[in-house]
Amino acid sequence: MFRVDKFAVRAPLLLDLAHLTVARGDRCVLRDFSLQVRRGEHIALLGPNGSGKSTLVKLITGELYPQTGVRGMRFRLFGQDQWALEDVRRCVGIVALDLLQNLSHEVMARQVTARELVLSGFFNSLGLWPHHRPTRAHERRARELLRFLEIAHLASRSLAEMSSGEQRRALIGRALVHDPAALILDEPTNSLDPGAVREFRGLLRKLARAGKTLILVTHHIADLIPEIDRVILMKKGRIVADGAKASMLTSTVLSKLFGTKLRVTKRGASYDLVSR
Questions:
Q1: How far apart are CA 240 and CA 3, in angstroms?
Q2: Are 236 and 49 in contact (CB under 8 A)?
Q3: What pLDDT is stored for residue 154 in this prediction?
Q4: Shortest CA distance to 168 belongs to which of 197, 141, 139?
């Protein structure tokens, strides 16, 4: 077990999770899991594949549920012990790995445009269907987001005709339609080429400066933009370290986390990881 650093902040809690256990089938994927995230923080959840990062995202979105009856268990969002899924969707924007994968199936086959994908966030769908009736306020919000995300010129273009980076921007627009306080991004740079990754990180910095709490879920330390100052390390369904970025992103700590000899390199405010 790594030493856990206390990260002292006093802003209101967005997420307050304590002693949660989540099983998928007969396998326990989160074990006695506790985490607090406060408004205004920008954090990264870092860990190898299978560490439980994506399970945590599904827990927050209500796709998975913790075991009940556990002593000291607490699952509080935005200061509330009880909430509806609609409330979660309005408070937390999600750009999840399974949504990215679905873009190449349902959405591509239906020739969904960037405008339609953004608007579909109001209806919790991927793209619009005939029974959906966007209002003028919905359309106005979609135009604002397309401009903010620098893809207004692609509003009427099919996602199938866009680059992966442009598709990712439209998906973020979908997550932002309700102006959520926090944005959770699950492995957001997967499948992007190096140029698109660089542009996407620039977008993340723009979102951070716009006041969104960013929760980045990844196993690539190069994804950690300078605005992220707290890093939480996960392994085998547990948090094994939690602290300031400089103390977490060291060769010794990450070699232990990933179970192989690694070397952390740093250029300016950017980090990367190479094998030794």
A1: 8
A2: no
A3: 97
A4: 197
